[in-house]
Amino acid sequence: MVFESIKRTIMDIMGIPEDEILQGCDIYNDLDADSLDMSQIIIALENEYKIEIENEEIAEFKTVKDIADSIEIRINK
């Protein structure tokens, strides 16, 4: 499941406990991510799924679910 992969990536990069990472979490406010964290998360996920996400779309991501939805669209093409 894509969400589990994203959760694992966030845990690895930011050191956030698994139970604090929910699909509806605001990446910046709830998880205290900054732009560097987001860049590292996206790069790791792009490498894992062999996809590319445009910067304009990344700028629109607010929640963990936003990232998951974007990845699922790409891998289900």
TrEMBL record:
Pathway annotation from the record: Lipid metabolism; fatty acid biosynthesis
Protein keywords: Cytoplasm, Fatty acid biosynthesis, Fatty acid metabolism, Lipid biosynthesis, Lipid metabolism, Phosphopantetheine, Phosphoprotein
Span of domain Carrier: 1-75
Principal subcellular localization: cytoplasm
PTM (free text): 4'-phosphopantetheine is transferred from CoA to a specific serine of apo-ACP by AcpS. This modification is essential for activity because fatty acids are bound in thioester linkage to the sulfhydryl of the prosthetic group.
Pfam families: PP-binding (PF00550)
Superkingdom, taxonomy of origin: Bacteria
Gene Ontology, cellular component aspect: cytoplasm
Location of O-(pantetheine 4'-phosphoryl)serine modifications: S35
Oxidoreductase in keyword set: no
Location relative to the cell: Cytoplasm
Family to which this protein belongs: Belongs to the acyl carrier protein (ACP) family.
Protein name: Acyl carrier protein
